[in-house]
Amino acid sequence: MSLIKKNGYANEAFQMENIYLEGKGNDEKSKGEPDVQQVTSENSPSRVEWGGGLEFLMACIAASVGLGNVWRFPFTAYENGGGAFLIPYIIVLFFVGKPFYFLEGFLGQFTSKSCAKTWAMVPAMKGLGYGQAIAAFSIVTCYGGLMSLTLYYLVASFQSELPWSFCREEWKDQCIDTVSKDVNRSTRLLHNDDRTLRSSAELYFRKIVLNEYDSIEDGIGTPSWELCLGLFVTWATIFCILCRGVKSTGKAAYFLAIFPYFVMIALLVRAVTLEGAANGILFFITPDWNKLWQSSVWYAAITQCFFSLSICFGPILTYSSYNNFGHNIRRDVMIVTTLDTFTSLIAGCTIFGILGNLAHEMGTTDISKVVRGGTGLAFISYPEALSQFQVVPQLFAVLFFVMMFVLGIGSAVALSSAVFNILCDHFPNVKNWKLVLIVSIIGYIISLVYITPGGQWFITLVDYYGGTFVAIIVAVLEIATIFWIYGLSNFLNDAEFMLGSRPSFYWRLCWVVIAPLLMIFILICTIVTYESPTYDGVPFPDYAYGIGWFLLFLGVVAIVGCILQKLVQLRSSSLIETVKAAFRPSEEKWGPLDPKIRLEWKEFVAEKKFRHRGGCVEAFLK
Predict the structure, then answer these.
(1) Cβ atoms 124, 562 nearer than 8 A
(2) Which of 18, 224, 364, 365 has its CA 20 to 30 A from that of 466?
(3) Cα 391 to chain center, whole Å?
């Protein structure tokens, strides 16, 4: 009996006219796997679900609308020319971000499995799930360090005078008060070409909070006990939420998703009313058309889009796996991605409004040189704005840093969930709280690096190599695996079965043509024109670059290793047959989790295949 009569599937990459993959391949593929009649924990329909569709929506908002918008988006836009970055970002969001979000949301809901087991559709590509987990854990450890800094500022906000709003005696002539109206000092800043004068908020962050090193050639130093304590509180919070499972995450998501907007809007209103804010916002929204031809700007736009929406890191796929099979995922995708863009624009206008005010105070019109860029920008610009509140600035500071912590927790819990679920797959007999404890302890130890005097250097390094670089490689391979190996027509049949109708031409065009070609082109250009990342223009020492490349190597090895492992496991006398077996869907493991729905799906797909024998082109155009 041919495979198409069994389950309606034949990978289009290996399909020949009127020839279908025979059941023999499935026999070879099943070495060491349970019989289809066996009921394992993986194929049990008893998987826990969200308390309701609204919980899933709130959890996705908490995961996607987080530090990626409020912390990373502003400094990425600042480093890439403001408006010069905004146009590519919106284009990428529309043609890559939204389609990828829908794709991952669909896969999780369709299979009800973790980001590793989802790839039973093409077993050899299971490593994509592990690559996502490596990228997710790299980023969540960075988030741990950032939330520790947030708690430090939160405690400092209870002082009678905000400690970053004034210059300290030891800074003398290199500082300007954040709330200073000293015309003479501001005038001197106009000729401050070598940046010897800085705002009190910047000096407080770099000299008091971090005690930052100008170089990490001789090491990264040791963290302060205050930051270590803040880091402990951060990971303890993550541990408590994850221990309670998806039900707890869903309930916490209501607060994690809604509360931050009240503070962000209040801060935006204050920022845009500052003197000089209009110039900063104009810098943010005015495009520099010449920079549209720079691949580095497009690469930054793609990686920021992935970072902001948490796509290709595992959380969306993981969260959607807890959905009811018939949930309206398309509606939620449009809500979350639109809200994510709105949040990024709020954060951008707030930050650049503050920078415009700071430029006005300093007597310069060059927004790009007001402060040093980098990962610490949010801990400089936002406190600047908080100091400008005329009435109880301490209250707004407390609310803001509580908001930052809440945003960080929402993102960190989502990223950690992706890692935790993979561990649950591999260690089903270990109690959940023990696995969460292991993740939290390892996360805490690694996060200690990011709160040292050289920590901001390593946040930049890990963000580039271990996070975004791995994520974009995973993204290219993910979309190629689904639509070029598994096949567009197969995927559309699955989508029609679950959603009731086929995705529109917009989705198909983005998935098959625009997104893969754009990402491949940008990735190639980035590799060809590769320049080693720097921190505030200063190169990293060789050992640091070695660590960065090692993180990237781990992500790639996870993918390549799984391909080789599957080829060896399914080896036969024919290399072609071995490759076919490794890259065809697993008959036992691919498909809906619920046995009843799974049977209906197989019948639906078989009927579709019988009636419509067209290929990929017909599926794309239809």
Answers:
(1) yes
(2) 224
(3) 36
Tell me the C-alpha distance between 184 and 165, whole Å: 18
123 vs 615: which has the higher pLDDT: 123
Residue type, 115: C
Which among 508, 514, 515 is positioned nearest to 487, based on CA atoms?
508
Q: Is 440 annotated as a binding residue?
A: no
What DSSP assignment string belongs to 265-308? HHHHHHHHTSTTHHHHHHHHHS--GGGGG-HHHHHHHHHHHHHH
Q: Output the furthest CA–CA distance in the chain (Å, rounded).
A: 88
Q: Express each pLDDT in 375-426 by its tens digit.
A: 677 788 778 878 877 778 888 889 889 988 988 888 898 899 889 888 888 8
Confirm whether residue 407 is marked as ligand binding.
Answer: yes
Q: Under a CB-based contact definition with an 8 Å cutoff, are residues 142 and 459 in contact?
A: yes
Is 46 annotated to bind a ligand? Reply is no
Strand stretches in 479-560, DSSP E: 534-535, 538-539
Total length of the chain: 622
CA distance 294 to 299: 9
CA atoms of 547 and 545, how far apart (whole Å): 5
Helix, strand, coil percent values for the chain (each to nearest 5): 70, 0, 25
Answer yes or no: is 114 a known binding residue: no
String of DSSP letters for 425-443: HH-TTS-HHHHHHHHHHHH
pLDDT at position 35 is 37
Measured CA to CA, the distance from residue 92 to residue 86 in angstroms comes to: 10
Going by C-alpha positions, the residue among 300, 235, 329, 246 that lies closest to residue 86 is 300
Could you give the 3-state DSSP secondary structure of residue 9? Answer: coil
